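RESIDUES AND SHAPES:
===
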Amino acid sequence: MRSNTYGLRVDFVDPTPDIPSWTFLTNHAHVLIAISRNPDLRQRDISYLVGITPGAVQRIISDLENEGYIRSERVGRRNRYEVIGAGALRHPLENDHCVEDLLKSLD
């Protein structure tokens, strides 16, 4: 327990899920997977699920859009994302597979 600015005792809950120190997939892949599962997620929600900052999510989404792996569309005050499944994976060991292959293997 800690005191807030008014001197009241408040229980603070850790806002991030329990994520291991390393994983087999990159944060780019995690963001892509989160978007594929729910295209209406806010960047704040994606950051919570992946365990990275909202700024990192924004940079990753920009990378994915610039390289043609996702599209975003403004719907009201929010973005809706679309995964482009035909894009080839980037590393030489896996570039004979596409994004859709990765996402299907993890469903």
Summary: Residues 35 and 72 are 10 Å apart (CA to CA). The chain has a mean pLDDT of 89.
